[in-house]
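1st attempt posting a full record on here, be nice pls
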Amino acid sequence: MNCIAIDDEPLALNVISEFCDKVYFVNLLGTFINPIESIPLISEDKVDLIFLDIQMPNITGLEFLRTLHHPPMIIFTTAYTQHALEGFELDAVDYLVKPIPFDRFLRAVNKASELLLSRKNIADRNKHENNSDFFMVKADYRTVKINFDDISYIEGVKDYVNIHLVEKNILTKTTMKNIEEKLPSDVFVRVHRSYIISLNHIKAIENNRIVIGNKYLPIGNMYKNTFNKLLDSKRI
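the predicted structure (as tokens):
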């Protein structure tokens, strides 16, 4: 379970880091004193859980959470109890009051882990039940059918996803993660935080770039291994 911690107190971040090191299924990707600095990592859809302080300068944890269109799971970590109700109204997994005992921390991350597993099981079940070769998206005030075979690559653009088809583009308001879950994993692979490509439409691979049509798409460092493994399974 990939996590980050956001708190304006370095000591509090140290405590969260030490607790995460003790739990084998928790992988702390980073800690942030300034919430805004965490946005690029969150936007990569690699964060499953955020440990989020509430009382911080410039922007509170509650305000920051409301700015995220598709937030990961949240566990609030705060010295104040009066925000608990509001926190749970924002679908927080748990609400930890400082100083946080380790056993209370462990209960919270166990709850988050069970929730994450449940969501993955539902997503996997939906994948198995859906044997079609297309999906539907909303675009230009209508619902559009997208055939898998027509997709060259998919590009993340802020709060939107641009689906590049052979003959046209479709722009829809969603996340790369939502789109990725609908695609067959033996044909489509994420090669960059902003790109998912179809293996069927690759013309060539040059160094750290993929050629699709007349476009050169970068291969991100954190996606190289997955991409190369999939390529190896297709090589003869």
